[in-house]
Specification:
The protein is α/β, with parallel strands linked by helices. It has 15 helices and twelve strands.
């Protein structure tokens, strides 16, 4: 078997999707299979600084949706290597589902990471992804091509259920399967000496306890919960609040000031991998109060590093934790605060950490890669 992985358009800078494609290739090679990554070619996108909005977005669309499908067909048609029945094509991101039209239907599949944007475009408020007029058209096009995929994997049962619901309650094809994400880097507990040195460099005193969240400033990430739960705790806990990932937005900075927490907030913008592992390994608790996710990578990353987790009780968070995290209503700061107080008990804390470390084993790269290979082996396409 040989795999061609179709990745994302480089100027769009979708780092998590790039990691997914690169990790999948590496894992396939570890299983003694041939694998290569194809990135959409950049032509007009070189003319602008960003393809995320405005004129640059439309130039990117020309590269992605007009030129690259032609290139895909040409590469496939004029090379005997890619005509081989044992060569399979996999689109690594559901937002590129229109590429399936340029690939052999019985030898091609796709990963659906979430249907948040699709559901948001259809008016589902619980997706927390509102769409513009053109965005609704784009998501409709993505969805129509996505559900034509004969081979499809979703990264959570929630995403599969939501996708099938959008299809009218029945999966169009039998080769649709849930295959959870695996780790895309090494996450394991870091020794205290190494972690404290890295934290000091990031502005966190080695002897200060802190709660941590990792991610963007999107409203669905519900970052304000860490501030609200800290305010509720009052004098019961006097640690720091660490936001890793994107910088704090204006609304959050205003809330920090309103709650009088200016001297307790630390923002670490885009930490490198070692610093991220140090944060996970040292935090009093990893707090993940998101309103909506397709999978929730930070949850298992934190557990693999030995952090106890307090997360939203909204799926797929309970699915991914498999009962090894404290789950609470993302609109109830009191519930999150009570979860943190539970973790101040050394025995309860250790129990949750041990359970989390065990849960992280479910996302072993080898195990999940073999499930992925089996999806194609059993597809009947060869």
């Amino acid at each position: 078997m040989k795999f061609v992985l179709i990745a994302n358009y480089p100027p769009d800078r979708q780092e998590s999707m790039k990691k997914y494609a690169v990790t999948l290739k590496e894992n396939l090679v570890k299983e003694s299979l041939e694998a290569e990554i194809w990135y959409p070619k950049v032509f007009f996108g070189y003319a602008v600084k960003s393809t995320g909005a405005g004129f640059g977005k439309w130039l990117g669309y020309i590269d992605k949706w007009i030129i690259y499908p032609v290139i895909l067909r040409a590469k496939r048609m004029f090379s005997s290597k890619y005509a081989d029945k044992n060569t399979f094509f996999h689109v690594c991101d559901h937002s590129n589902s229109p590429y399936l039209k340029s690939l052999p239907a019985h030898r091609s599949g796709i990963t659906c990471h979430d249907v948040l944007a699709i559901r948001g475009a259809l008016g589902f408020e619980d997706a927390y992804c509102p769409a513009s007029s053109t965005g609704k058209i784009l998501q409709s096009w993505i969805f129509k091509n996505l559900i034509k995929a004969r081979i499809l994997t979703t990264v959570s049962q929630l995403t599969m259920d939501q996708l099938i619901s959008l299809c009218g309650g029945n999966a169009p094809f039998s080769q649709w399967k849930v295959i959870h994400n695996s780790f895309n880097a090494d996450f394991s507990p870091m020794a205290p000496v190494a972690s404290k040195k890295l934290l000091a460099g990031a502005g966190i005193s080695p002897d200060k306890s802190f709660i941590l969240t990792v991610g963007s400033s999107l409203p669905r990430k519900n970052r304000k919960m860490l501030l609200e739960m800290t305010a509720v705790l009052g004098k019961k806990w006097d640690g720091l609040i660490c936001f890793a990932g994107q910088p704090l937005n204006e609304a959050l900075l205003v809330l920090v000031k309103e709650l009088g927490l200016e001297d307790r907030v630390v923002s670490i913008v885009k930490p490198d991998h070692s610093t991220l592992v140090a944060l996970y390994s040292t935090c009093t608790a990893f707090v993940f109060p998101s309103y909506s996710e397709g999978f929730g990578w930070p949850l298992i990353e934190a557990q693999a590093c030995g952090a106890p987790v307090i997360a939203s009780n909204v799926d797929p968070m309970p699915e991914i934790s498999n009962g090894t995290a404290i789950h609470a209503d993302p609109d109830q700061p009191n519930d999150f605060a009570n979860g943190l107080l539970l973790l101040l008990d050394p025995e309860k804390r250790k129990k949750l950490i041990d359970a989390g470390l065990e849960n992280a084993k479910r996302f072993d790269t080898g195990l999940l890669t073999r499930e992925f290979i089996g999806l194609y082996t059993n597809s009947g396409s060869n």
